[in-house]
Structure formats: structure tokens, C-alpha cells
Amino acid sequence: MAHDISCYRCGASLEALSLPFSRQDECPECSNYLHVCKMCVNYDPGVPRQCREDGAEDVAEKDRPNFCDWFKPSDAAFDAKRKDEEDQARAALDALFDD
User: Fold this and answer.
1) HSE-up of residue 84 (Cα within 13 Å, Cβ side)
2) What is the residue-level pLDDT of the chain in tens, covering all 99 positions?
3) How many structural domains does the chain have?
4) What are the distances in angstroms from CA 45 to CA 30, 32, 37, 48, 50?
5) Coil, helix or strand for 93?
6) Domain that holds residue 47
């Protein structure tokens, strides 16, 4: 079944992976886990516990794999602006510590 989901971290297409994602599935580009809060449709940094699902257990590390039964991958998890800011910060650090 085709889907239009991208990695929350790097934006790589995850179309080759089948749904539902397992707890150990990783992005083929950046190797980050995919069954994480930041990849879920219920993830919302603006609400308490950063989750819109009241029945979900609290997860402290939103970018680590978890066993949440409410997990559903979001097709809008990737934030290009956040990625650009991270890339700029990494480039500045690289320039600062370049030999």
C-alpha cells in the first residue's frame, strides 16, 4: 500500500517501507527510528505531554522508539524550516572546530 510519509528528521521518503512501522524500523537515509512520538499524528508540542491522545502513556524521550498503541505515522512530521536551522547550526559548529 503506497503512502506519502517522510522521515520527521531528514525528510527522506519512507514509501519503500510498509505500514505499520515496527518499533525497530529506521529511516533508510539518516538511520533514526521511526516509531517515535515526533513521527506521530498525535504529537503536538503545544499541548501537555506533547500528545493529543489522552489515553496514551507519557513518553519522556519523544525521539526514541516506544511501544505506544496510539502511534500512527504522520505525513506532515517533517519540518523543513527546523531541518534548515539544524543544518546551519551544524555548519557553524563545523566551521568553529575545523582544523
Assistant:
1) 3
2) 568 899 999 999 999 999 999 999 999 999 999 999 999 999 999 998 999 999 999 999 999 999 999 999 999 999 888 888 888 888 998 888 875
3) 1
4) 23, 20, 10, 8, 5
5) helix
6) 1-99
